Structures are given as C-alpha cells and as structure tokens.
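Hi support team,

I've been running sequence recovery on a batch of backbones for a student project. Most finish fine, but this one hangs at about 90% for roughly twenty minutes before it completes. I'm not sure whether the input is malformed or the queue is just slow. I've pasted the structure tokens below so you can try to reproduce it. Let me know if you need the job ID as well.

Thanks,
M.K.
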C-alpha cells in the first residue's frame, strides 16, 4: 500500500502500487493479523486468504465471519471492503492480493464470445463475489505460484487463466453486497422490466403498488407479477424491499440519522416492520449493524 486519501464516506481511498505500464500488481504475504482499515480503490481486486478462520470480512453491506479459506473478487471503485482480525487467532495467515486495472478489459478483444464468462463475472463482481471451495481448489496452484513467475508475459497468461477458471463457477459464487448499497444499477434484458426497475430506483421512498406498476407496462397484475419473477428471479415485493434496505443500510453507515428517521426516509411504513425485514436479511438489528460496521476515520 503506497498511500491513502479520504472520500466523503470516511472510508480510505487507497492509492495502489499498480503502474500504468503493468497489467496487475500482486502482493503475496504471510502475516499474523489484519490491520488495514476499510477502503476502496479504482483497481479491480482478487483477494485470497488462508488459515484465517474467525476473520470478519466486510464488503459493502455484507458482513461475514470467514472460515479457513476465502477468495473474493471486487470490481467496483466505490465498494468499501476490509478483512478485520475479529476472532482470528491464527499466526500463519497467508494473503494473496492481486490488483488489476479495468483498462485491461477495454479492448474490443474482450467483446469476443470466448471471453463472455469473464465479462459476466467482472460485471457481477461490482457487488463483490465470494467463490466456493471447489473454485478455490481449482485455481490454488496457479495463485500459489503466480508471484514467483519470472516471465511477465507468462504471469499474465496464468492470471487470465485464473480469471477464466473462476468464471466457470459464476453460478455457485455468492454475491456479497446489495446493488443499491453498492450504487450499482442492475438492469434486466427486458425493456418492460427495465422501465419498472428505473421507476422503482427513482420512487422507492413512495408507496409502490403492483397494480400501478403493471399498468405502466400494459399488463395485468397477475401476468406482470409472473413476468417480473421470471425475468429477475425475485418477486416484485422482495425486489422493492431489497432496494429500500440497501439505501437504508447505506444511510446507517454514512449518516447520523436515527434508525426511526432512516426507516421512514426509505419507504418503510412502520419501525417494527423495518426491524423485522432488516433482521431477516442481515441476521442482526439495524442498531447492531451500525455498531458492527467499523469505519475508521484516518487522517492522512
């Protein structure tokens, strides 16, 4: 880490050592503890951690305690993330961090069919992706030897191979942050669903009714409800709740507003309902989430 600066949300804006003339930067280190505070950066990041059971991983509004192995890909410059010591007692932690520039994927070469699975993975990783153990095992040898690769060209080929192998597990990978917290717009390939998603993004604080939204795209409520679920994988009511919760969680982290104020500011009609839905999604109360989300103010 060569330097830091502050953004408006008090998370550290990391200045990484990645040179404009290099494809990626890799740091392979053994450590006894995690000390770096929550941060974000414009570079994409693939982070592997082993022998770190009990570490708390925060990516956006996702807070999880990890097991012995963890592999996460992040491709959004605004998505705060950190690995905190928490309950980890291991003295043999290994962390491999690979940071790479989005410019690597600006060439028309990446539009070819052969790279479609990598493109899809990088897009989904804007919210953070956690890979399952079979994926970690599949790329471990390449990760383990990447830093020691002497030839720059072959190290890039090996890194691309890692990305491709991980992209084959995209359906098993876990999305971490909510889209509204990560400030990522998720759009369906259906124009009718896109129209409704755009409307919800702008009016999520208001009372949204199925009949009203269905009428906007010329469908009956029953037909639209089925159509929306088919195209997005979520019921309309669940989609709206997720959007509202994402914005509410962002306010819990970034503002000093009371939980009562945040509840009504984001379209929830009563505090008990807000607390119930919040706990169902995050497995803790809004108050506990705010207390657990450690954003350390650092003067640099």
């Amino acid at each position: 880490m060569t330097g830091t600066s502050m953004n408006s949300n008090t998370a550290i804006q990391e200045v990484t050592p990645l040179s404009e003339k290099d494809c990626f930067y890799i740091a392979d280190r053994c450590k006894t503890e995690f000390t770096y505070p929550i941060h974000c950066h414009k570079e994409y990041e693939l982070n592997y951690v082993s022998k770190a059971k009990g570490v708390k991983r925060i990516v956006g509004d996702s807070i999880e305690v990890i097991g012995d192995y963890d592999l996460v890909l992040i491709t959004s410059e605004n998505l705060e993330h950190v690995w905190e010591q928490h309950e980890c007692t291991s003295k043999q932690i290994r962390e491999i961090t690979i940071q790479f520039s989005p410019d690597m994927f600006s060439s028309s070469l990446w539009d070819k069919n052969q790279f479609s699975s990598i493109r899809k993975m990088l897009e989904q990783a804007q919210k953070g992706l956690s890979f399952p153990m079979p994926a970690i095992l599949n790329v471990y040898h390449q990760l383990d030897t990447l830093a020691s690769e002497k030839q720059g060209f072959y190290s890039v080929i090996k890194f691309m191979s890692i990305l491709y192998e991980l992209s084959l597990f995209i359906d098993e990978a876990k999305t971490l942050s909510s889209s509204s917290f990560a400030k990522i717009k998720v759009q369906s390939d259906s124009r009718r669903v896109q129209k409704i998603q755009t409307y919800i993004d702008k009016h999520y604080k208001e009372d949204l009714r199925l009949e009203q939204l269905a009428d906007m795209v010329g469908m009956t409520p029953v037909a639209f409800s089925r159509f929306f679920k088919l195209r997005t994988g979520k019921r309309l009511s669940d989609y709206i709740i997720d959007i509202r919760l994402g914005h509410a969680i962002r306010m819990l982290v970034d503002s000093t507003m009371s939980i009562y104020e945040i509840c009504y500011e984001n379209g929830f009609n009563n505090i008990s309902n807000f607390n119930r839905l919040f706990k169902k999604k995050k497995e803790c109360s809004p108050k506990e989430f705010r207390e657990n989300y450690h954003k350390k103010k650092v003067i640099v």
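--
Follow-up from support: It reproduced on our side and the slowdown came from queue contention, not your input. The two ends are 13 Å apart (CA to CA). No action needed from you.
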